[in-house]
Amino acid sequence: MLEKIWLSSPHMGGNEIKYIHEAFAKNWVAPLGPNVNGFEEDLQDYLDSDVYVAALSSGTAALHLALIQCAVGYGDEVICQSMTFSASANPIAYQGATPIFVDSELETWNMCPVSLRLAIEDRLVNGKKPKAIIVVHLYGMPAKMDQILAVADAYDIPVIEDAAEALGSTYKGKACGTFGRFGVLSFNGNKIITTSGGGALVCVNQGDKENTVFLSTQARDQAAHYEHSNIGYNYRMSNICAGIGRGQMEVLNDRVVARRAMSTFYQDLFKDVKGVSVLKEPSTDYFSNHWLSAIVIDPIIAGFTREDLRLALLEDNIESRPLWKPMHLQPVFAGSPYYGGSISESLFNNGLCLPSGSNLSDDDRGRIKRTISNMLAVTVR
Ligand SMILES: *Cc1c(COP(=O)(O)O)cnc(C)c1O
User: Fold this and answer.
1) Could you tell me if the CB of 103 is within 6 A of ligand 1?
2) Domains, the chain, ranges and CATH?
3) Is residue 85 in contact with ligand 1, taking CB distance under 6 Å?
4) What's the predicted TM-score (pTM) here?
5) Which residues contact 327 (CB under 8 A, 6 or more apart)?
C-alpha cells in the first residue's frame, strides 16, 4: 500500500523543540510563562502592531470568549455563516443563544452581504436584534469584508471574525482576524501552523485582552485567597504548546508560500478540465493563505461527481474531503432560522478539498496528478 497522502498534516520547522526544552529547563510547565508571552508578541507583530492577542487552549475557546465579551446570553440571537465548521456555531449554543444562519456568495464561498442584510432586517421585525455576526474566512479565503462591515456598522452589530483557517491571509493588505471587534485564530493540528492544539483571540485594545486572559484563567479577583465575582473558564494556552507556536511562527511565511503553490498546482491541473473550478482569489484585494485547495465540480459538464473523484483518490490512499456541510443542514441545528438560497448547499454537494499540506513532496504531487489524470482519462465527456 502506498503511503497515505493527507489533506493537511502538521509541518514542524525544527526550532519548536528548542522552545519546549527552554520551558522544561526553567520549569515553566504550566498554562503561563515566557513562551505564552513570546507567542502572543510574535502573533501581534505578524498581524499588526495595533492588536492585542490572548493565547488560548483552542479556537473554539476563543470564539466562546468573544461571544461572552459581546454580552451574548441566554435567549439572544447571533448571526453566523452557515457554511463553516461546527466550531464556529457551537459556542453560540454554549451561551444558550440561537444561531441565525446566513448563506454564502459564489466568489469567496463566505457570508453573502446581501443575505446578511436581509437576515438582520427580518430579525429586527420578527425576532430580536442580533448581538453579533460571526463571519468566516473559509479555507483561508478572505470574506467580502468591506461589504460585511458596512452592513454590520449600519445596524451597529459587532463582527467576530473566525480566522481559524486564515492566518497569513489579507484583505486589501490588512490581516484577516484584525477587522472585527474580535478575531479568532486556531492552531489545531491540521491548520496552517499548529501548537498541537490551541487558539488565540485577537483584541482591539489592551482592556479586552486583559479581560480575555482573566476569563480564561478562572476569573480570579485580586485577593490572596480565591475570590470570584464572575464565572471563569480554563481556556489559557499551555507554555509547552506556546513553545511549539513560537517555532511555527518562524516558518509561517514559508508555509503560506507552500500552500499557495499547492493552489497553483491544482489551478494548472484543472486548467483545461471543463466543469471543474478551483477556488481562486476574486481580485488582487484578496490574498489567501490557501490553507486548503478546493474545487467545485459541475457533474453534468464534467461527467463525474465529487464522490467519483473522492473515491478514485481514496483508492490510491490519497485523502480528500467534501466541503463543510452547511450548519442549517446539520441535524443539531435543525430549527435554527436560515437566510439565503442554495449556494452553500450546492457548494457542499459538488465541492471537494484536495491535499494541501505545506509538506507535500514532488512525488506526492506526481501521485495526485497521476490519479486525477487517470480518472479524467476514463471519464466520458
Ligand atoms: C478549526 C476551526 C475552528 C476551531 O478551532 P479549534 O482550535 O479546533 O477549536 C473554528 N472555526 C473554523 C472555521 C475552523 O476551521
Assistant:
1) no
2) 16-251 (3.40.640.10), 253-379 (3.90.1150.10)
3) yes
4) 0.97
5) 80, 82, 83, 84, 86, 88, 89, 99, 101, 333, 336
